[in-house]
Design a protein that fits this description.
With 250 residues, the protein is of the alpha/beta class. The chain has eleven helices and eleven strands. A six-stranded mixed β-sheet has the order 2-1-3-10-4-11. α2 runs antiparallel to α11 and α3 packs parallel to α4.
């Protein structure tokens, strides 16, 4: 009887409680990371809490004490700031993804080759050019760099309307409140209300990198999720959403 009672206790023992991971991530990652997080939750039994925003905004929140376990930035600069503040777990930082900068407009718009001779101001036809904040948000910085490299910035600067993050900039084009927009290629994949008109040369702006790192003090669930981001399943989701997947550790 004692052996039977012990067997019953073992057979009906409760599973270990599931953990929770709080992730602060760049707004451009939303569609892909939502899917990756849902897949990991289903497989692990853990819970993911996601907060999205412009990289400078969420980096500052982390530096001000926001309870993040993992930071995925669209900017090397802002990951550097968080790391310099001593808030990352040593040895966990890695470059996960890259991207392309594209010009988007309404579906059915004619494609254009983006070069120094492109009449971008003429393409706007008096409308607005939607961009993320050009002095602080990575997508805006990359977009402005491309325009400056091609010699197009001065002509379109008066028409630029800036938003706090790239998804907000994308939404203005989808809502037809801006004639054109400059966003990541992955953003265009995520929004059926826009079409890619042209792609900026990769050498017209600094290389786009999405670094990720655990936030101190660190926890096993965050480490597991960071490892999962390099899995074949996660990488396939990122590629489907228009990202360029980098080899592990760069």
């Amino acid at each position: 009887m004692l052996r039977l009672a012990l067997a019953c206790l073992i057979g009906f023992s409760l599973p270990a409680s599931a953990g929770e991971v709080t992730i602060f991530a760049a707004a451009s990652l939303k569609n892909a990371l939502d899917q990756v997080a849902a897949d990991w939750q289903a497989a692990s039994g853990n819970t993911v809490v996601l907060t999205y925003g412009g990289s400078p905004a969420i980096a500052k929140q982390i530096m001000e004490g926001a309870p993040a376990d993992l930071f995925v930035s669209a900017s090397k600069q802002w990951m550097d700031e968080v790391e310099k503040a001593g808030l990352t777990v040593s040895g966990t930082r890695e470059d996960l993804l890259s991207n392309h900068m594209v010009l988007v407009g309404q579906p059915g718009a004619a494609p254009v080759e983006l070069t120094a001779s492109t009449d971008l101001a003429g393409l706007l036809a008096g409308g607005k050019l939607s961009m993320a904040l050009v002095d602080s948000v990575p997508a805006g910085q990359y977009g402005k760099a491309s325009l400056e490299t091609l010699g197009l910035w001065q002509a379109v600067e008066p028409s630029v309307v800036q938003s706090e993050n790239v998804r907000a900039a994308l939404a203005l084009v989808a809502a037809k409140e801006a004639a054109l927009g400059i966003v990541y290629a992955s953003d265009a994949v995520a929004e059926p209300g826009v079409a890619v008109i042209g792609t900026f040369p990769d050498d017209s702006h600094p290389k786009i990198l999405y670094p990720a790192a655990e936030i101190a003090p660190g926890k096993p669930e965050a480490q597991d999720f960071l490892t999962y981001l390099n899995s074949d399943a996660a990488r396939a989701v990122f590629e489907q959403q228009g990202f360029v997947v980098l080899p592990p550790n760069g």
